[in-house]
Amino acid sequence: MDAADIEAVSTIRVRGWQAAYAGIVPRTHLDAMTVEDDAGRRRQWFSRPGRTSRDLVALGDRGPVGWICFGPCRSEMPAPERVGEVYALYITPDLLGRGIGRTLLGEAHAQMGGQGFEASALWVLSDNQRARRFYERSGYRADGAVRDDVYDGITLTELRYRCVL
Fold first, then answer.
1. Hey, which of 45-54, 70-79, 129-138 has the most confident mean pLDDT?
2. Measured distance between the N- and C-terminal CA atoms of the chain, rounded to whole angstroms
3. Which ranges in 23-115 belong to alpha helices (H)?
4. Segment 99-132, tens digit of pLDDT
5. Which class for 81: exposed (0-12), middle (13-18), buried (19 or more C-beta within 10 A)?
6. What crossing angle do the helices spanning 35-46 and 6-20 adopt, rounded to 10°?
7. Which CATH superfamily groups domain 3-164?
C-alpha cells in the first residue's frame, strides 16, 4: 500500500464495517462513519515516523479491493514466542467469498514469519460469526482472552484469536 491507496482503503474499510457489522454494531455508529473522516485518520497514521505496522492491498480491475494491516502484537500474550497481530482485514463487500481475504491473510502470515514472528493474534467481535468462521478455517482459535468495546452506549465483546505461523 502507498499513500495513493488511502482513499480506496478507507472506502473498503468503511463499507466493510457497514456491511460486516450491520445488526452487531449500533446503526447510529455505522451511519456516522465516513470515508473522508477515515481517510484523514489513515493519512495521519500512514505518515507516522517509526510506524511498525504494514499495510497490504489486493488489487482488482477497479484498483484496491481488499486491505490488511498487521504488525507486532499490541496486547500481553501468555506464551513467550514472538507474536504478530492482524489489526484489520477488510474486503470490498460485493467481493466477499472470492479468496481475496485468504490471499491477503496468507501474505501477511508470510511477512510476519519473515520478521521472526512465531504466531499471529487478532481480535474479532464475538457476534461476527462470518469472520470467526473465516479465521477458524485459516487456523486461528480463540485463546480465552476477551475485551469489551463500547459503541454508542452498547458494549460489544471481542475475542482474541491466535494461530501458529
1. 129-138
2. 23
3. 27-32, 35-46, 100-114
4. 999 999 999 999 999 999 999 999 999 999 999 9
5. exposed
6. 130
7. Gcn5-related N-acetyltransferase (GNAT) (3.40.630.30)
